[in-house]
Specification:
3 helices
Length: 111
């Protein structure tokens, strides 16, 4: 007459211990972890909790600026695919080159 199973609390019920994320990459709980890792690489020891929104805004605006410049470059070259050399060229043009991608004396700089 009585079942040994719990009533109404199956494994897909919201209160069964599972967290329901916001979906997609970078929208859940992992974002502060990513910001903390970048700050540690930059030499920061501790981060205030209130700074994460500011970091998110700065990173977003920087990425938008890089992508806009890449889009301008692709329009000029009449292409639709962004390559690594495109991003390296845009970053060098903006004044922040990436280490390991500097042109050596024997290689011509591609525009």
């Amino acid at each position: 007459m009585f079942s040994t199973r719990s009533q109404g609390r199956g494994k897909h019920h919201p209160s069964s211990g599972r967290r329901q994320g916001l979906g997609g990459k970078g929208l859940g709980l992992a974002q502060p972890k990513r910001h903390r890792r970048l700050a540690r690489r930059g030499g920061v020891k501790r981060i205030s909790a209130a700074i994460y929104d500011d970091i998110r805004g700065v990173v977003r605006s920087r990425l938008e600026m890089i992508l806009k410049e890449c889009a301008f470059l692709l329009e000029y070259k009449q292409r639709q695919t962004v390559t690594v050399t495109d991003v390296v060229f845009v970053l060098r043009r903006l004044g922040t080159p990436i280490w390991g991608f500097e042109p050596t004396g024997d290689q011509p700089i591609k525009a």
